[in-house]
From TrEMBL, chains A, B:
PROSITE patterns: AA_TRANSFER_CLASS_3 (PS00600)
Protein name: 5-phosphohydroxy-L-lysine phospho-lyase-like
SUPFAM superfamilies: PLP-dependent transferases
A single GO molecular function term of this UniProt record: transaminase activity
Source organism per UniProt: Sinocyclocheilus anshuiensis
Length: 500, 500
């Protein structure tokens, strides 16, 4: 297998032509071409090594040899479908069952987290005979039609909110309506869900489910306050609904202390449905839904077959089993506790030096560092976060941002991330943040943004451009707009007059 | 990798406990445990060989060594996601583009046919800004919420028809409203779609798309009449909609003469969107949507990213490339023409001997043989078809049925199916059909069905049973109900009185 067939420029040119442009590249102005990887390290076409801080999918490390071996062995023996009996699927379901509370004992295998969440929605609706869904603000649950409907992060930019969707405030104790100084934020945020249920009932609507990531990722690496999930589960069940824990980003030991992030909420909380994805196959397309006997029975009682062509095939299950083996054998949960703990400590130390770091939060190898303009207002430092990510790339560290304002630096590295990796990243962040003041105030910086704005505006010809520009600014250049408006006092009207 | 971990009974017991019962097994009363496979042959836990006539997913043959080799090589090098530049995705898109009309030149990679059809729906709606969809009766387009809505085969058993879905008659010239004696069934059936569009417009509704498999499979291995697609494409485009060709079952050379089944409709017909799945990765979870620059541009213009975690990863694309290589190197399209042609001839010969065979239709290795009670009425011989499938299993041939009445024996074998395999199957069918008369009239047969009915009824206790029985009969025991009603004159009221 050749490392590279085309020169990077040619790859980029073919990609722009052949692949839908909605599929975006990291570092779109100067994307990275990665040709091989091992563990937590990526290598570009020139053999340059990058430290990978974000590939949570490659959970046990890129290209783990025991996974390749088990996958190839099973590919050589048999790949079929679930209409034939096979041991792998039952072995694998049995292993997953051992990680979960007893009541979550029935499994459905699918090909992606999106397929898992869609099936969870079908299960919840079939079981409860209700339609409506409560979700958290800024949530993202997948790319399918049904999931965009329950993802405020997406539907706000597209068709808008459906009448059967109810959006609860994100229980973010740093930015939200109840903060770290509230005596019981778990209860307070749970009450917002209770109010939503009551309002829905007044309109004659019926709740099928509460859907939430056990640690909201796109929302900004949020850690739920104590007691939050348990109380919501009570409210939702009283309303005849079920609790769906989306563990697609957070499962398989990422939090270290527990196998599933929902377990951080205590042993007296158990969801009714759990969805799994991303790390489950270390990059191989597999995903899963776990649920109770009662919910599965209601789905069966519809009398309609559920057949997923590739879901649960012997190769996918062999890979799933191999991932579980590596997590255990290499004590990756222990590593997440040790390295994640150390990384968080280092970031907290940096926070004492750099006023830009407003908050450091997280658990295991799921950590967020939020940048703010100033600590009093907690105004998100979006542009500074983007600058930090760009600068880290120059230092050969791959990092990205998340959160409603893209102001949260998110750490979700392969679980073999080491103490040395953590120290290297923090040393780089320290250096970059030392110079960030200069960056922010530099004339050069303002000039560059103005030039980019000119380019954006000029690329739109004629009538539609105002809406297009607004749209672009909203979506692609949010950072730019924010910066221009706040720092330079340039309004959109001003821009329109200038470039028309 | 062990061939077997548990004894078959234990596997079955674990499966019933751990895997949702909506996931059904072939031959549910005595399922087959397959532990290895090669080419067109499956092997059970006792080493017994089965000839596989239905695994269209394992397109180039089970466990093709060159696929395993390429997959393992890429797994060892890199598996990442489409946010990094990589050659495999552009190489693969380029190769797929070469099989398609020039206008279908933009690609999106996903993990399953269902994900592909869901994305096609999103693309169509975003481009046309219309919502409504026209589908064919009995169609199945996938297991996702959005696709059950456009699959009469499923929604008739579940929530029913949405107001934005319009169902056109299946252009089945054997059973449908226009038959083989019609002077121009293509035009006549296309006109039914035109009428649907006109009706929808009268209600103020707007058509986003016409969705159809290029050869309806669940509908009963249907071959579209000449001119059908081209005229529908004209009508749908006049209405501001697009034509979506679902090639998930039919693509990649299955029809032999062409790479895509829609190409059977002539060079002057080109869909606006093509969805691919099942055979694309020989069992590896990969799927694809191809569309035009205009539709892709409209999707991009929404400003919203489309990110599919596993879709288009370097391993999936390496496997996709390897499948294309094998199709070419082993001339599998040529094989489909030769073997499929021979198989169809043999079945047509059997038709001259067995009045039960009402119709033989198909192209390449996509063939349907429809059984009927008698040729004049064309009444489907559902139970006889089930009997034939059961008997073929005893002869170690895996076959299944399709069509609205499960009366169509469907051939969709791996593309390496040989002349000898075709002859073996036809010899077996000939022998089984010779004895089928005895089977049908036997008292033993009637007794067995009555016993089964008793068991079904007794398994339901108390109040709900009538609706449950109706439901079960409709879904799981359609065959039984039909047989009891037609052959024994046993009505449901009769049964209720007897077993209450």
């Amino acid at each position: 297998m050749a490392l590279e067939v085309f020169h990077k420029d040619e790859t980029l040119q073919m990609r722009r032509k052949l692949i839908g442009q909605s599929c975006r590249l990291f570092f779109s102005r100067d994307p990275v071409k990665i040709v091989r990887a091992r563990g937590q390290y990526l290598y570009d076409e020139n053999g340059m090594q990058y430290l990978d801080c974000i590939s949570n999918v490659q959970h046990v490390g890129h290209c783990h040899p025991s996974l390749t071996q088990d996958a190839a062995a099973q590919m050589d023996l048999l790949n079929s479908n679930t209409r034939f009996l096979h041991d792998n699927i039952v072995l694998y379901a049995d292993r997953l069952a051992a990680t979960l509370p007893k009541k979550l004992c029935v499994f459905y295998f699918v090909n992606s987290g999106s397929e898992a969440n869609d099936l969870a929605l079908r299960l919840a609706r079939q079981y409860t005979r209700h339609q409506d869904v409560i979700v958290l603000d800024h949530a993202y649950h997948g790319h399918l039609t049904s999931l965009i409907d329950i993802s405020p992060y997406k539907f706000r930019k597209l068709e808008g909110q459906k009448e059967w969707v109810h959006v609860a405030p994100l229980p973010d104790t740093y930015h939200g309506i109840y903060r770290e100084d509230h005596p019981d934020p778990g209860q307070a945020y749970a009450d917002t869900v209770k109010s939503l249920i009551d309002e829905a009932h007044k309109k004659g609507r019926k709740i099928s489910s509460f859907f939430a990531e056990s640690l909201p990722s796109v929302g900004g690496q949020i850690i739920f306050p104590t007691g939050y999930c348990k109380r919501i589960a009570e409210y939702v069940r009283e309303a005849g609904g079920v609790y769906v824990a989306d563990e697609i980003q957070t499962g398989f030991g990422r939090v270290g202390s527990h196998f599933w992030a929902f377990q951080l909420q205590g042993e007296d909380f158990c969801p009714d449905i759990v969805t799994m994805g991303k790390p489950i196959g270390n990059g191989h397309p597999i995903a899963c839904v776990a649920t109770t006997e009662e919910i599965a029975a209601a789905f069966t009682a519809s009398g309609v077959e559920y057949f997923n062509t590739f879901g649960g095939n012997p190769v996918s299950c062999a890979i799933g089993l191999a991932v579980l083996d590596v997590i255990e054998k290499e004590d990756l949960r222990g590593n997440a506790v040790r390295v994640g703990g150390h990384l968080k400590q280092l970031l907290l130390q940096l926070q004492t030096k750099h006023p830009l770091i407003g908050d450091v939060r997280g658990v295991g190898l799921f950590i967020g560092m939020e940048l703010v303009k100033d600590r009093a207002s907690r105004k998100p430092a979006t542009e500074e976060a983007a600058h930090l990510v760009r600068r880290l790339k120059e230092e050969r560290i791959v990092m990205s941002t998340d959160g409603p304002w893209d102001s949260v630096i998110k750490f979700k590295p392969p679980m073999c991330f080491s103490i040395e990796d953590a120290e290297r990243v923090c040393t780089c962040i320290d250096q970059i943040l030392r110079d960030v003041g200069d960056f922010i105030s530099s004339v050069e910086h303002k000039r560059r943004f103005l030039t980019q704005t000119v380019a954006v505006c000029q690329s739109y010809n004629g009538g539609e451009w105002e809406s297009r520009l607004k749209h672009t600014m909203k979506q692609k250049q949010k950072t730019l707009t924010l910066y221009l408006q706040s720092q330079l006092g340039v309004s959109m009207v001003h821009l329109r007059d200038r470039w028309r």
